[in-house]
Amino acid sequence: MSNFLEQLRMFIWNIFNRPQLNDILDILIVAALIYQLIMLTRETRASDVMKGFLLLIFASLLSSLFGLTAFTWVVNLILNNGVLVLVILFQPELRRILEQLGRGTKIERGQGSLSSDENSRIVSEITQCLTDLSRRRVGALIVFEQRTGLKDVTETGTQLNSDISAPLLENIFEPNTPLHDGAVIIRGTRIVSASCMLTTLSESSAITRDLGTRHRAAIGISETTDALVLIVSEETGVISMARGGKLTRHLDATAITEILSTMYRQRQSSLFERARGWLKGVLRSVKE
User: Fold this and answer.
1) What span, in angstroms and rounded, lies between the C-alpha atoms of 114 and 270?
2) pLDDT > 90: percent of the chain
3) Whole-angstrom Cα distance, residue 263 to residue 248?
4) How many angstroms separate the CA atoms of 76 and 136, rounded?
5) Radius of gyration of the chain (CA)
């Protein structure tokens, strides 16, 4: 850590004395990384730790600048041992960053038929299920797998691999039935698994006290993956959506239909783009 601080001081000194194009580019890249780290830790307990760590770095730079040898030694001692602590504390955030980087190169698995008629049927079935459960105030938690694989989550539940239908989904979430407790995982056009345990609960301070474990679990998995999650509150019957760590509440049938239709259209477009790219690659190889 002492070497890092010394290099940082030299870096700042060089920038102010002879700024070059690569120095400006370097600053922009570091600023972007810091901004992303702040956004990832925003409204979590890790944000306070991040602020304290940055404050210690700033104090170390000032103490070194003014020649406060003893104080500099104490601060550097804390920072040297604090790096490992930060890695442990920021483990969820670091995992999220690596997952986001991996999504750009990940090849999606085949997800069944993506015809317009089938998509419309699936959207209609899910919308009907959620509105019926909301009317009867039956709790539900449905996770739609996107580019981030959820195999570790599906393995915690009961494997179904069945077609999507409103009666089946309603029966799964019916109280006092074997599969009602937990989440349903949907991959494309199939119900992959039911009664799955979502172990990562969101620690966001923005979540109100009236939201229980079901909503925290939904927000938690949307924070660490790109999954889209739909929730029905057992207490109020309110339908909500969690995506990207954000919760949208009080959805009606029209909003649910629009959300799901957009999701399936994007997936279909993505498959077409990959197929077109694959075909261009084959044609290029043949020409060569």
Assistant:
1) 11
2) 39
3) 16
4) 59
5) 24
DSSP class of residue 249?
Answer: -
- Assign 251 to helix, strand or coil: coil
Structure tokens at 285: 């190889």
Q: Which two tokens stand for residue 63?
A: 């103490």
**What is the rounded CA–CA span in Å between residue 42 and residue 204?**
8
How confident is the model at residue 108, as a pLDDT? Answer: 44
Only one residue has tokens 């999606």, namely 108
Residue 61 has pLDDT above 90, yes or no: no
d(CA 155, CA 197): 9
**Is 119 a residue whose pLDDT tops 80?**
yes
Which uninterrupted H or E stretch holds 264? helix 253-287
Alpha-carbon 3 to chain mean position: 34
The first and second tokens of residue 186, run together, are 């949907």
Domains and CATH numbers, the chain: 2-103 (no CATH), 116-276 (3.40.1700.10)
Structure tokens at 169: 């989904």
Structure tokens at 277: 């790219």
CA angle 101, 103, 105 (to 5 degrees): 90
Beta strands in the chain (DSSP E): 140-144, 158-163, 183-187, 190-196, 228-232, 239-243, 246-248
Residue 130 makes CB contacts below 8 A (sequence gap 6+) with: 140, 142, 230, 232, 239, 256
Question: 128 vs 58, 118, 226, 255, 286, CA distance in Å?
Answer: 56, 15, 24, 12, 49
Q: Which residues pair with 185 in a beta bridge?
A: 143, 193
Residue 189 DSSP class: T
